[in-house]
Amino acid sequence: MVIDSTFWVAISFIIFFLGLIYLKVPQKINEILNKLILDIKNEIDESEKLRSEAKILLDNAQNRLDSAQSISNEILEQTKKESDKLVIELNDKFHKTSEIKKNLAENKIAQMKEAAIKEIKDTSIKIAVDSVKKIITTSVDKSKLDTLFQKNLDETKEELKKINS
């Protein structure tokens, strides 16, 4: 066997590894790696836990949002129904009021028409009576006038008896 530089490199290499084993470097590296693995696992578990909590919070928030949206839609529908109902009521009130005003106006017109007709009749009667008086006073003598008056009085009494019975 030849002792050359490769032999000494191999020997130094073996001594180096034996020194590492003697100083427990591989165990320390293994402990450090195990500790890092454990820390990483803990962080992963914690992140999973946070993720699940965040998912629960997100679901709760989404449920609240959906609930608020449905309540908002219900309120809008109810408000729309109430406003439609109010519009219908106001429309009905308007039509009733306008019908009442129309009836009042028609009644007032009818009363005014009746009053005008009565006034025209009264005026016509007054004019006719005045005309008859004038004609009678100028053309008829007193005896004829008395007989005519008595005749008209009797006819009026008969008509009143018919109306009263």
Distance between the termini: 172 Å
| Helix/strand order, N-terminal first | HHH
State the helix count.
3
* Mean pLDDT score: 87
Structural class: mainly alpha
Shape, per Cα inertia axes: rod-shaped
Structural description of this entry:
This protein is mostly helical and 165 residues long. The chain has helices spanning 5-22, 25-139, 142-164. It starts with a helix and ends with a helix.
Q: Which characteristics define this entry?
A:
3 helices, mainly alpha, 165 residues
In short:
The chain is mainly alpha-helical and 165 residues long.
SSE topology sketch:
Layout: H1 5-22, H2 25-139, H3 142-164
